Amino acid sequence: MLGLDKKDTTLLLIVAVLTMCAPFLLNPFPEGSGMAQFNAGYPDLMQRFVIFGIFAIGFNILFGLTGYLSFGHAAFLGVGSYAAVWMFKLLSMNVLPAIVLAVIMSGLFAMLIGFISLRRSGIYFSILTLAFAQMMFALAYSVLTPITGGETGLQLALSDPRILGASATAEGNIPVPALFGLEMRSSTVWEVGAWKFTFNTGYYFCAVIMLVSFFLAIRIFRSPFGMMLRAIKSNQQRLRYTGLNPKPYTLAAFVISGMYAGLAGALMASMDPLAGAERMFWTASGEVVLMTILGGAGTLIGPVLGAGVIKYMENIVSKINSDILHGWFAFLPDGLEDFVVAIIYPFIGKGWHLTLGLMFMLVVIFLPGGLVEGGQRIARAFRRGKKNEAPKAASTEPAE
Amino acid sequence: MGILDVKDVGKRFGGLKALSDVNLSVQENTCHAIIGPNGAGKSTLLNCLVGKLIPDTGSVMFDGQSVLGRSPHEINQMGISRVFQTPEIFGDLTVMENMMIPCFAKRDGAFRMHAYESIAAERDLIEMAEAMLDDVNMLDKRNMHSASMSRGDKRRLEMAMCLVQNPKLLLLDEPTAGMARADTNNTIDLLKEIKDKRDITIAIIEHDMHVVFSLADRITVLAQGTPLVEDTPENIKGHPKVQEAYLGESH
Amino acid sequence: MDAIILQILNGLDKGSAYALIALGLTLIFGTLGVVNFAHGALFMIGAFCAVTLSRLFNLSHEVEVPGQTDFLGNPLKKDVPYLHDIFGEATGSAIIDWSVPLAILFAIPIMIAVGVIMERGLIKYFYKRPHADQILVTFGLAIVLQEIIKYYYGANPIPTPAPDAFKGSFDFGAMIGFAENTIIYPYWRLVYFCFAAVIIGAVFAFLQFTTFGMVVRAGMADRETVGLLGINIDKRFTIMFGLAAAVAGLAGVMYVPINPPNYHMGMDFLVLSFVVVVVGGMGSLPGAVAAGFLLGVLESFASMREVIDLIPGINQVIIYLVAIIILLTRPRGLMGRKGVMED
Q1: pLDDT digit string (tens) for C328-343?
Q2: Is the pLDDT of residue A397 over 70?
Q3: What is the sign of the dihedral through the CA atoms of B156, B158, B160 and B166?
């Protein structure tokens, strides 16, 4: 389907079904139950899952395929956000022109920065991208305040022209981002018994764009271009002596991943129309590196998975406090309860970064292929176990 | 005029004269060997031919065009393929993918933004790659991870990757260095087969006399950065200057 | 002229910190071939050694002040540090006052231990892995270390003062013949600069004049060959890692009075220190030191009012700008060696 082989089509369909059903899947616990705090099915978080998914998919096209580790990708996310908000200010609240401009702008920035940074490789490339991103962050924070809003960030105002739209709504409010009248923030809530499912327009809009991005990423992975990128990671010397010029290939990968980042930035601005310089800070660039590696660099689904895990931890695990812990372990004798809580406490709530750091280290040390590799290993072990149990059943499987 | 003409090439590294007054002409459809003791400047000369180094003086013409100042990928696109001393292949890719890359390079040039096409749809190129793999008896290994193969197979694959581009000139940089005798003989057989089957010009840099005398139509002896003599293998064998400069040492 | 001297002086303390961190980074990179993203965390741990010692010294117990009552009529109580009980009030107060310099002694063994544990426990498994993996695992380690510190010390900066004797400033301009009050320089910054100079001098002397240092330098030049000589290079490199950790830690200890430490100070310095290392030239110790001071001073010049008026925002970006220009014109950095991390 769509030029994908069977395996990739299945993967795309699974991801499509999962994202479409996310409002159900992420809200498995009834409202008001003790487990309800693990529900991640609220619009804000679901939007972040898919937006950071897009960011990570794009980053993976550069890092996963070519092996060039950029430590400044958040800069393009920031550029996308600013461009989108400016479109909201000047043109209209329709999200499409905002997204288009954001992708173009981040692509141009990526072209410029990539062209310079890619003259070096290895750690030098990482430092160059980091230096550019930090420079852009510093400028956005200070001198460029007229364009970026400086410390407060770029916000919409009633006085904005919005030549194709209205400066203000009939009620005198600032209009909200919409897709041809379909407001991004509008939601439908279904209450089924004790369960409450929220269907948010913005989420579904982002989810569809994420699916398209994911599909394009699969196409890139399976294309001759994707193979060239993997060849660059594997042996640049051989590539050159085979008559191919690695430079334009890496630059193209850099620009594509920059455009993905810009797209993610535009979607962030579309969900909540403001943009701040902190989105470009190097920790934000570090975050997308964490997502990609954690999920599995160079795999298709890994970055999306990594983005999901990290955003889930950031929003859910970080909310668990010691009272909740005490509630869970109330069945234990008092002394033991305190002990267990004391052990777990540093890793949750505000300490979730600690868990993240440890997880990340463990993945780099033991699972260079990330969670995807972990899953594959488990699946293989499971299959092997099954085979041992029932060798006959295994032998009837058709040979590949 | 040969297909490759090297005229008055000189190259210095600091105070060290690596090459001086190198004149060399490789005729079409012949196998031309360049031999010489260690430090004679063989590798420097080779690097000047493929764009890794730029000579200080002189000219290198290939097929009527100068190669000087061109980068390795441009020189390859002109029709020169190079085999390295230690096999250089794409270790993270499968054998078949390794073969597809030179096929794309041959058809599409140094860069093409084919990011939306599918590799599986390129039937012609796949057939070409498979035919070449079959030629070197590696078709059964097509889905293997190429880093996990033996050194001999890697050499074979590298050779196939160069040949599938149908180069006008194949440059071999000590293709049997560090190989056991049996492997060396296999490589010689492979190269002989290539020579017989195709219209191809081969320039080979080699240390091993056995390899050189089994393959070469003409031999240039390089010593201290300058060609000593150029002649047929028979004449080279008996040449007193060569005996002195080269054979006398190693035998 | 006086303004220029003032800016040079102002740049020296930050430059000293950059130079010290970059020195350690280069030692580790040059000897072990590892790109250590956790090096900033070592700087931060050093700073918190000073905080910890200062807190230990200030541990106190309550005693009633005889004959006085507070406004509720209860006996007035006051905190008396244990140190007063042990050493008497005068000596005890002096020790508390001098807690930051004393923390140097406290920090050296701790930092060496942290460094050795880090190297033996984690880094040594990454010698043969790609640089990207090294960056990633040490990046993870840095997050873990700073979260641990945050857990115990909180997220807010902790002011820890310098000894009273070094508080305040002096008129450096008057001392060298300028008009009074033109070049005012805080004492502690001068102390910091001298301290950094001593440490840098000591490290260079150690590498230059001891057999150990000779082997390490040889190892930096060509690790394999030195390994072939039958010298147990690994053990020496472990010690080198401990030493680099100690240098970063001491830089952190002494930096505490200049900037109250918080858990992410290491990362803030690390990013810049990496830029410093790259500008100086990967693997070049003199390059790292020179680039550290150079960039510190440049940064300080760029924050002069006149310069900012001329090129707005230059103070924010000068370091990165210099790094980009250097990397593109001199790919090996100012004093980089051939063959180090070229691809």
Answers
A1: 788 777 877 665 544 4
A2: no
A3: negative
Residues A118/A302, Cβ–Cβ less than 8 Å = no
Q: In this complex, do C139 and A286 lie within 8 Å of one another by their Cβ atoms?
A: yes
Which of C252, C253, C258, C96 is CA-nearest to residue C188?
Answer: C258
The predicted pLDDT at position C343 comes to 42
| Cα dihedral sign, C120-C124-C125-C131 | positive
- Cβ-defined contact of C313 to A282 (cutoff 8 Å): no
Encode pLDDT of C41-73 as tens digits: 999 999 999 999 988 888 888 887 777 777 777
| Contact status of A228 with chain B (Cβ, < 8 Å) | yes
ipTM of the complex: 0.90
Q: Say if residues C88 and C96 touch (Cβ distance below 8 Å).
A: no
3-state SS string over B103-166? HHHHHHCCCCCCCCCCHHHCHHHHHHHHHHHHHCCCHHHCCCEHHHCCHHHHHHHHHHHHHCCC
Answer yes or no: are the C-beta atoms of A258 and A110 closer than 8 Å: yes
- Tell me whether residues B90 and A238 touch, CB distance under 8 A: yes
Question: Which of the residues in chain C have pLDDT under 70?
Answer: 1, 223-231, 337-343
pLDDT at B251: 41
- Angstroms from B105 CA to nearest CA on chain A: 6
- In chain A, the residue whose alpha carbon lies closest to the alpha carbon of B100 is A224
Q: Is A227 on the interface with B (CB under 8 A)?
A: yes
**A233 neighbors A66 (Cβ within 8 angstroms):** yes
**Closest residue of A to B118, CA-based?**
A223
Could you tell me if C334 lies within 8 Å of chain A, comparing CB atoms?
Answer: no
B82 touches chain A (CB under 8 A): yes
Find the residue in A nearest to B78 (Cα). Answer: A243
Asked if C151 is an interface residue toward chain A (Cβ–Cβ < 8 A), one would say yes
Backbone angles phi, psi at B175, to 5 degrees: -65, -15
Q: Which residue in A has a C-alpha nearest to residue C272's C-alpha?
A: A131
Q: Residue A225: beta bridge partners?
A: none
Question: Which pLDDT value is given to residue A42?
Answer: 85
pLDDT, mean of residues A166-183? 83
Q: Residue type for B51, please?
A: G
Mean pLDDT computed over A221-227: 94
Residues of C in contact with A289 (CB under 8 A): 136, 139
> Which pLDDT does position A393 carry in this prediction?
40
Task: Answer yes or no: is pLDDT of A5 > 60.
Answer: yes
Q: Is C94 exposed, middle or buried (0-12, 13-18, 19+ CB in 10 A)?
A: middle
- CB-nearest to A245 from B73, B113, B161 is B73
Structure tokens at C292: 């550290």
Q: Which residue has the tokens 């107060």?
A: C93
| A neighbours by CB contacts (3+ pairs under 8 Å) | B, C
CA dist., res. C343 & res. C333, Å (int)? 14
Res. A12: pLDDT tops 90: yes
What is the average per-residue pLDDT within A139-157?
A: 86
Q: Are A200 and A46 in contact (CB under 8 A)?
A: yes
Determine how many CB atoms are found less than 10 A away from the CB of residue A99. Answer: 24
- Beta-bridge partners for A200: A187
Give the span between the Cα atoms of C25 and B67, in whole angstroms: 43
Assess whether pLDDT exceeds 90 at residue A182.
Answer: no
Residues of A in contact with C270 (CB under 8 A): none
pLDDT band at A53 (very low <50, low <70, confident <90, very high): very high
Is C149's Cβ below 8 Å from some Cβ in A?
Answer: no
What would the CATH number be for the domain defined by A6-298? 1.10.3470
Cα C6 to Cα C38: distance, rounded to the nearest angstrom: 33
Residue of B nearest to A231 (CA): B90
What confidence score (pLDDT) does residue C338 get? Answer: 60
Regions in chain B scoring below 50 on pLDDT: 250-251
What domains sit in chain C, N to C, each tagged with a CATH number? 2-56+98-329 (1.10.3470)
